[in-house]
Structure formats: structure tokens, C-alpha cells
């Protein structure tokens, strides 16, 4: 299925306002409520809309510190990569893990209360990850821009 301009408008609105009512959405994208509802259902069924979530405030949840951790593994064998990925996916403080091309094998996005909490996460979890040869952590001083909305 290819997306037309109306589908793109629907996706754009839903990315920013996931709880918008179908009536309000249909008005925003200039469709009847029933046509809008059918399109949203099709976008969900076809996998364009993967899920609906609540975006939480890290400060209010007392995890305002973001740390980016670059990890280099000892080897690139499939079993080493698989073991690392399985282990890192179980660490609740790790929000993202990306396999990289470049100087590091992986980049992790980790949240913590502060530097002491990150030291705990490092000791209890990161330092125990299998196959790690080198790790470098960079603390974000301030988030300048952040979005979850993909360009449609």
C-alpha cells in the first residue's frame, strides 16, 4: 500500500496528538468521520501505525540525566552480537540500543537520576554485558531538541 497525502496528514496529526478523537481528526484532515476511521484502521492493519503510547516526563519520574554509551565488542561473530543484544535489552535504564557503522559497535541511550545513579547502572549492568572490549560514556548537558515524530 502506498500513502497518499490524506494518509500522510492523518499520520502527522496522530504522531503529535495520539489521543485525538476521530471526529476531531476527521475535521483536521478534511474527511468524513467514517472515511477517516477506515483509513486509520487500514494504516494500523498495514503496520504504518505500530502502537499508541504515552510520552512521560523524565524529570517528574526522577531520571533527568541522559547518557550516551558507545560500546566496542571484542568480536563481531553472530553469537557475540546476539548475546550482547539479548543482555542489553533486559536493562530497564537503557531506552535505545543501536548497532552502528563507525568507531563504536553499539550506541546506547541510558537514563539515570544523576551521575551516582549512572555509576550504579554501570557497575550492576553495563560492566557485566558480554563481549564488551571498550565502553565510553558521554553525558548530555541539555536536550536542545527531541521528537518522536517521523517526517511523513
UniProtKB/TrEMBL annotation:
Instruction: List membrane-spanning regions.
Output: none
Q: Organism's domain of life? A: Bacteria
A GO cellular component term found in this entry reads: cytosol
Q: Which residues form the HTH asnC-type domain?
A: 3-64
Q: Does the keyword Transcription regulation apply?
A: yes
The record's Gene Ontology biological-process terms are: regulation of DNA-templated transcription; response to amino acid
Q: Which UniProt keywords apply?
A: DNA-binding, Transcription, Transcription regulation
Extent of the signal sequence: none
**Does Transcription count among this protein's keywords?**
yes
Among the Pfam families in the record, one is HTH_24
MF annotations from Gene Ontology = sequence-specific DNA binding
Task: Write down the InterPro entries for this protein, in alphabetical order.
Answer: ArsR-like_HTH, AsnC-type_HTH_dom, Dimeric_a/b-barrel, Tscrpt_reg_AsnC-like, Tscrpt_reg_AsnC/Lrp_C, Tscrpt_reg_HTH_AsnC-type_CS, WH-like_DNA-bd_sf, WH_DNA-bd_sf
Please identify the protein, giving its name as recorded: AsnC family transcriptional regulator
Source species of the chain = Leisingera methylohalidivorans DSM 14336
Amino acid at each position: 500500500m502506498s500513502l497518499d497525502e490524506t494518509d500522510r496528514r492523518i499520520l502527522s496529526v496522530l504522531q503529535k496528538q495520539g489521543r485525538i478523537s476521530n471526529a476531531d481528526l476527521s475535521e483536521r484532515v478534511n474527511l468524513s468521520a467514517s472515511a477517516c476511521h477506515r483509513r486509520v484502521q487500514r494504516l494500523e492493519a498495514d503496520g504504518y501505525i505500530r502502537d499508541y503510547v504515552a510520552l512521560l516526563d523524565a524529570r517528574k519520574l526522577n531520571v533527568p540525566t541522559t547518557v550516551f554509551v558507545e560500546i566496542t565488542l571484542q568480536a563481531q561473530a553472530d553469537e557475540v552480537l546476539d548475546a550482547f543484544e539479548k543482555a542489553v535489552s533486559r536493562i530497564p535504564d537503557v531506552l535505545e540500543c543501536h548497532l552502528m557503522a563507525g568507531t563504536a559497535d553499539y550506541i546506547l541511550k541510558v537514563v539515570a537520576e544523576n551521575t551516582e545513579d549512572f555509576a550504579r547502572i554501570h557497575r550492576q549492568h553495563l560492566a557485566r554485558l558480554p563481549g564488551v572490549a571498550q565502553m565510553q560514556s558521554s553525558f548530555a548537558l541539555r536536550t536542545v531538541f527531541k521528537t518522536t515524530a517521523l517526517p511523513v
